[in-house]
Specification:
Structural class: alpha/beta
Radius of gyration: 15 Å
Shape: globular
Strand content: 15-25%
Number of helices: 8
Distance between the termini: 8 Å
Oligomer: single chain
Protein backbone atom coordinates (compact mmCIF):
# COMPACT_ATOMS: atom_id res chain seq x y z
CA UNK A 1 0.00 0.00 0.00
CA UNK A 2 1.73 3.09 -1.23
CA UNK A 3 0.26 6.57 -1.58
CA UNK A 4 -0.25 8.04 -5.02
CA UNK A 5 -0.86 11.75 -5.23
CA UNK A 6 -1.78 11.36 -8.89
CA UNK A 7 -4.49 8.79 -8.13
CA UNK A 8 -5.75 10.85 -5.19
CA UNK A 9 -6.05 14.01 -7.27
CA UNK A 10 -7.61 12.21 -10.25
CA UNK A 11 -10.61 11.23 -8.14
CA UNK A 12 -13.66 13.36 -9.04
CA UNK A 13 -14.15 14.35 -5.38
CA UNK A 14 -10.63 15.78 -5.20
CA UNK A 15 -11.65 18.84 -7.21
CA UNK A 16 -13.69 20.09 -4.27
CA UNK A 17 -12.66 18.02 -1.24
CA UNK A 18 -8.89 17.61 -1.44
CA UNK A 19 -7.07 18.70 1.69
CA UNK A 20 -3.63 18.29 3.12
CA UNK A 21 -3.53 15.11 5.19
CA UNK A 22 -1.87 17.15 7.94
CA UNK A 23 -4.87 19.53 8.10
CA UNK A 24 -7.35 16.66 8.25
CA UNK A 25 -5.39 14.95 11.02
CA UNK A 26 -5.10 18.14 13.06
CA UNK A 27 -8.87 18.62 12.72
CA UNK A 28 -9.25 15.06 14.05
CA UNK A 29 -7.00 15.65 17.07
CA UNK A 30 -3.36 15.30 16.00
CA UNK A 31 -1.00 17.83 17.54
CA UNK A 32 1.67 17.66 14.88
CA UNK A 33 2.48 15.19 12.13
CA UNK A 34 5.27 14.38 9.69
CA UNK A 35 2.92 15.07 6.78
CA UNK A 36 3.69 18.13 4.69
CA UNK A 37 2.42 18.11 1.09
CA UNK A 38 0.45 14.84 1.01
CA UNK A 39 -3.19 15.23 0.03
CA UNK A 40 -6.32 13.30 0.88
CA UNK A 41 -10.02 13.60 0.17
CA UNK A 42 -12.08 14.85 3.12
CA UNK A 43 -15.04 12.46 3.19
CA UNK A 44 -16.54 14.08 6.28
CA UNK A 45 -16.89 17.40 4.45
CA UNK A 46 -18.28 15.68 1.38
CA UNK A 47 -20.92 13.97 3.53
CA UNK A 48 -21.88 17.27 5.18
CA UNK A 49 -22.21 19.04 1.82
CA UNK A 50 -24.00 16.15 0.11
CA UNK A 51 -26.62 15.91 2.84
CA UNK A 52 -26.91 19.64 3.55
CA UNK A 53 -25.37 19.49 6.99
CA UNK A 54 -25.45 15.71 7.22
CA UNK A 55 -23.87 13.62 9.91
CA UNK A 56 -20.08 13.36 9.71
CA UNK A 57 -20.28 10.15 11.71
CA UNK A 58 -21.60 8.36 8.62
CA UNK A 59 -18.25 8.24 6.83
CA UNK A 60 -14.62 7.47 7.42
CA UNK A 61 -12.66 10.72 7.86
CA UNK A 62 -10.73 10.69 4.59
CA UNK A 63 -9.27 8.60 1.83
CA UNK A 64 -6.10 8.59 -0.22
CA UNK A 65 -5.28 7.15 -3.61
CA UNK A 66 -2.84 4.27 -3.82
CA UNK A 67 -0.41 3.23 -6.56
CA UNK A 68 -2.56 0.10 -6.94
CA UNK A 69 -5.26 2.45 -8.29
CA UNK A 70 -7.46 1.85 -5.25
CA UNK A 71 -8.73 4.28 -2.64
CA UNK A 72 -7.70 3.68 0.98
CA UNK A 73 -10.20 4.62 3.69
CA UNK A 74 -8.83 6.16 6.89
CA UNK A 75 -10.54 6.90 10.21
CA UNK A 76 -8.65 9.02 12.75
CA UNK A 77 -9.67 8.21 16.31
CA UNK A 78 -7.01 10.46 17.79
CA UNK A 79 -9.19 11.87 20.59
CA UNK A 80 -10.36 8.44 21.78
CA UNK A 81 -9.18 7.83 25.33
CA UNK A 82 -10.62 4.32 25.69
CA UNK A 83 -10.75 2.31 22.44
CA UNK A 84 -12.77 -0.38 24.21
CA UNK A 85 -15.77 1.91 23.68
CA UNK A 86 -15.61 1.44 19.90
CA UNK A 87 -18.66 -0.25 18.44
CA UNK A 88 -18.45 -2.76 15.62
CA UNK A 89 -21.74 -1.65 14.03
CA UNK A 90 -20.67 1.99 13.95
CA UNK A 91 -17.36 1.17 12.34
CA UNK A 92 -18.94 -1.19 9.82
CA UNK A 93 -21.49 1.49 8.92
CA UNK A 94 -18.79 4.11 8.34
CA UNK A 95 -16.88 1.75 6.07
CA UNK A 96 -19.97 0.68 4.14
CA UNK A 97 -21.21 4.23 3.59
CA UNK A 98 -17.77 5.51 2.58
CA UNK A 99 -17.40 2.67 0.08
CA UNK A 100 -20.80 3.57 -1.39
CA UNK A 101 -19.71 7.18 -1.87
CA UNK A 102 -16.49 6.18 -3.60
CA UNK A 103 -18.08 3.49 -5.76
CA UNK A 104 -20.48 6.14 -7.08
CA UNK A 105 -17.44 7.59 -8.83
CA UNK A 106 -16.43 4.15 -10.11
CA UNK A 107 -13.33 3.79 -7.95
CA UNK A 108 -12.17 0.60 -6.29
CA UNK A 109 -11.77 0.72 -2.54
CA UNK A 110 -8.83 -1.15 -1.02
CA UNK A 111 -9.62 -4.17 1.17
CA UNK A 112 -7.51 -2.69 3.94
CA UNK A 113 -8.90 0.13 6.05
CA UNK A 114 -6.82 2.23 8.42
CA UNK A 115 -7.75 3.27 11.96
CA UNK A 116 -5.44 5.83 13.55
CA UNK A 117 -5.05 6.16 17.30
CA UNK A 118 -2.87 8.16 19.61
CA UNK A 119 0.26 6.24 20.56
CA UNK A 120 -0.90 6.12 24.20
CA UNK A 121 -3.87 3.88 23.31
CA UNK A 122 -2.91 2.18 20.04
CA UNK A 123 -2.03 -1.16 21.68
CA UNK A 124 -5.35 -1.25 23.56
CA UNK A 125 -7.13 -0.47 20.28
CA UNK A 126 -5.37 -3.29 18.43
CA UNK A 127 -6.19 -5.75 21.19
CA UNK A 128 -9.84 -4.69 21.39
CA UNK A 129 -10.39 -4.93 17.64
CA UNK A 130 -8.81 -8.38 17.39
CA UNK A 131 -10.17 -9.97 20.57
CA UNK A 132 -13.57 -8.33 20.88
CA UNK A 133 -14.94 -6.53 17.85
CA UNK A 134 -13.93 -8.97 15.14
CA UNK A 135 -12.86 -12.06 17.08
CA UNK A 136 -14.92 -14.36 14.85
CA UNK A 137 -13.86 -12.72 11.61
CA UNK A 138 -10.13 -13.09 10.91
CA UNK A 139 -10.54 -11.47 7.47
CA UNK A 140 -11.84 -8.30 9.08
CA UNK A 141 -8.95 -8.08 11.52
CA UNK A 142 -6.44 -8.75 8.74
CA UNK A 143 -7.88 -5.90 6.69
CA UNK A 144 -8.47 -3.42 9.52
CA UNK A 145 -5.06 -1.95 10.25
CA UNK A 146 -4.52 0.00 13.45
CA UNK A 147 -1.68 2.52 13.40
CA UNK A 148 -0.38 5.64 15.03
CA UNK A 149 -0.09 8.64 12.73
CA UNK A 150 3.66 8.03 12.48
CA UNK A 151 3.16 4.36 11.55
CA UNK A 152 0.62 5.40 8.91
CA UNK A 153 3.18 7.78 7.39
CA UNK A 154 5.91 5.13 7.45
CA UNK A 155 3.83 2.27 6.05
CA UNK A 156 1.67 4.00 3.46
CA UNK A 157 3.72 6.91 2.11
Amino acid sequence: MTYSEEHTLSHPLAARYKKLVNIILIKEGAHNTAFTTEKGIDLDQYEVDKNKGGNRDNTMDFCIGLRSMEMLLVEAKLRVKDPRNLKKAELASKIRHSKELLVESERTVARQKILLFDKSVVNVAKHHIITTLFKNNPNATANLLVYTVQEFKEKCF
